[in-house]
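User: I'll paste a sequence; please echo it back and then give the predicted structure.

Assistant: Echoing your sequence first, then the prediction.
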Amino acid sequence: MLAGVGCGLYADIPDGIGRAVRVVRRYEVDGTSSADLAAVYERYRAVVEALLAINAPEAVPKEQARATDHHRCDCFGAEGRSG
């Protein structure tokens, strides 16, 4: 869209949107769907919280944490030299 405005294809962003976007169908949320979605979202949040608790860094064994710690990569040997 911005490239089209920049090269002069569209006069401005609203012009580009008006020429490039076509609304085929609109969906309106009714009250019951909203309540159902809120309940599902609450379950989703509970699952996310449970997964975070399981995967918390303090729950990972130190041996595994060291093996996957990208900040402590010993790519150049113990002294940190490349040669």
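The radius of gyration is 26 Å. The mean pLDDT is 76.
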